[in-house]
Amino acid sequence: MEMLIYYIKLSIHNIKRHTLFFTLMITTLALGIAVLLANLAILKVMSSDPIPQKSDKIFSVNMTTWPETKGDNSEPLHILRYRDAMHILKSDIPTYSLIHYESNVYTRAVESKSLSRFGATTRATTQAFFQLTNAPFEYGQSWENENAFEVVIGADLNQKLFGGINSVGKNIEIDNKLFRIVGVLKPWHLKPLFYHASERRAFNKTDDLFAPIEVALDNSWGIGARASSTEMYNASSETREKNVFYLQAFVQLDTQQQKTEFQNYLDSYSQSLKDAGEHPFDINNKLYNVNEWLTKNKVVDDKILAFALATLLFLAVCIFNASSLLLARYHSAKFETGLRRAIGASKKQIFLQGSIESIIIGTICAFFSIVIGWIFLKLSLSLFPYLTDIANFDMQLMIMGICIAIATSFISALYPLIRASNSNISSEIK
Amino acid sequence: MLKMNSISRIFRTDTIQTHALRDFNLNVTEGEFVAVTGPSGSGKSTFLNVAGLLDTFDGGSYELDGVNVKGLSDDELSHLRNEKIGFIFQSYNLIPDFNIFDNVDMPLRYRGFNAKERKRRIESALELVGLASRQKYLPSQLSGGQQQRIAIARALAGEPKILLADEPTGNLDSLMARQVMELLHSLNEQGSTIIMVTHDPDQARAIKRNVQVIDGQITDMSIYAPLTSAQTA
């Protein structure tokens, strides 16, 4: 213990007497680590598991139902027709099944004296949405009747309309119709938004308003995401009977048996469509679990991956430079090293002393890396504005930054230390 | 104390082999003061490096205070150096930005003494060289002679079995050189075993046992009746 304190004192003494040198070295390493940390902060959000407790049990349903024969349409689609979606809901194999589409409405609190309305991103969905996604309720609960004029609102909209109070039971107006609030969610930042990872919407905010899909269709709420069709339609209310593909479906399958049974259920349905001459393709229905679904939708931006590689290379260059600097320093300090060896320090002790110095430098470096990294992150987010509210330096990343700083500092010092501790004593001193 | 039998040390390059020491035999008993002389390149420094375990040897055997040093690990050699040998260098080799106390403290740190024991030894060693009052001084604030005395205190603090001095007065003027030599003689009189490499024949003559090294071999081992202090002055 006493030796450890001695090594720490020596290291601090060395850093103080070579301030300029160590400033240069720390700056070199801190820049490399900071760029890497900023990149990791973005990468971490992009690649995080949004629902780790059951991401392997929730599946996006992709089906072979597209009727056109032009082009290659054999790949299963993640957007489904109303009747395909209803077939999924009909099955009692999944623990939960939901279908949804995105819309946008304008709304106001009925009791408000102001007539101004707020725009609200809306998820027209089914009741099971909340159980499947583990949506956190602040007040109330989901609707029970899929045809009721009832809605669940998010914390932001509740704040805008009612100042954040418990608004369950209050009415809001949408397109001149009254909807009763039955539930209010807590602030909910699902990152990435797995239930709508397609069309680059994985980092959109969670929705403001959730309404029964049947009510949304009855009232012709617009389809605010990808929709493909082989027939003309004027309003969403007409889509129930037409070949309009726009609904996304997710199911929760807790066991392998459920998954197998549900896959068979989908395949028989697709086969029956094929037998009826509705499509000519081989049956190729797919169930992607959450992480597979995010990967398939390239939620981790290619630019970020390329940038990650570049930052790693940059860090390697920084380590190389720091190592060269240290080699020069150990060369200039070889008299002291030789002297210490002559008066009784072993190679191990010299190595240990240098290692502790590198750990102290790494710790100082970590502080600057985090500060500079935070600045880099803010600058980087101008490239990825949709990540602005969610990519941040959390505790986990800061701990990672400290570990990387200490490790890189040690790696930089490794070769110079081996050289120093193995130097010929008699040639270093006179 | 120190027994070297048929020691050889060869420096090799791609084309040349230099026999720095060959069939080198020397016995030094406890309490002796031995002067090693010889022309430049004769092998004096190589001998001192081998004796001080700073360098290896190629053949022969070497026993230091009863320990056969051949085949010892780096840890064991370092431990032996720290415990049994005190070095006094021509250039003092003090760390310039450490104060006197910290310079003398260095070998004691590697020995693992606690703070109290280290302080006692440092104060005692500095007292012995007459510089106890300069503990907080930096080496640059002392004269060359004083710096060499600090180096001697550093060598003595560990209470080694043997002191190895490599031209300890080589960088000093005659007055300071005399003071340092008096200190070494005094230490020898108190029981320290000392081997000193020197170029100065007068200094050598003042030492009872002289060993002359030429071409890596001992050519003369004379025993002198040491000169008195008055004569050396």
TrEMBL record, chain A:
GO molecular function list: transmembrane transporter activity
Membrane topology: Multi-pass membrane protein
All residue ranges annotated as the MacB-like periplasmic core domain in the record: 23-264
Alphabetical keyword list: Cell membrane, Membrane, Transmembrane, Transmembrane helix
GO cellular component assignments: plasma membrane
Record protein name field: Putative ABC transport system permease protein
Species whose genome carries this gene: Pseudoalteromonas denitrificans DSM 6059
PANTHER family xref list: ABC-TYPE MACROLIDE FAMILY EXPORT SYSTEM PERMEASE COMPONENT 2, MEMBRANE COMPONENT OF TRANSPORTER-RELATED
Residues that span the membrane, as ranges: 20-43, 304-329, 350-377, 397-418
Automatic annotation (TrEMBL), chain B:
Single GO term (MF): transmembrane transporter activity
CDD domains: ABC_MJ0796_LolCDE_FtsE (cd03255)
Database matches in SUPFAM superfamilies: P-loop containing nucleoside triphosphate hydrolases (SSF52540)
GO cellular component: plasma membrane; transmembrane transporter complex
UniProt domain ABC transporter: residue ranges: 2-231
Keyword line: ATP-binding, Nucleotide-binding, Transport
Pfam families: ABC_tran (PF00005)
Signal peptide stretch: none
Matches recorded under InterPro entries: AAA+_ATPase (IPR003593), ABC_transporter-like_ATP-bd (IPR003439), ABC_transporter-like_CS (IPR017871), ABC_transpr_LolD-like (IPR015854), MacB-like_ATP-bd (IPR017911), P-loop_NTPase (IPR027417)
Family under the similarity heading: Belongs to the ABC transporter superfamily. Macrolide exporter (TC 3.A.1.122) family.
Name of this protein: Putative ABC transport system ATP-binding protein
The species this protein was found in: Pseudoalteromonas denitrificans DSM 6059
Source species taxonomy: Bacteria, Pseudomonadati, Pseudomonadota, Gammaproteobacteria, Alteromonadales
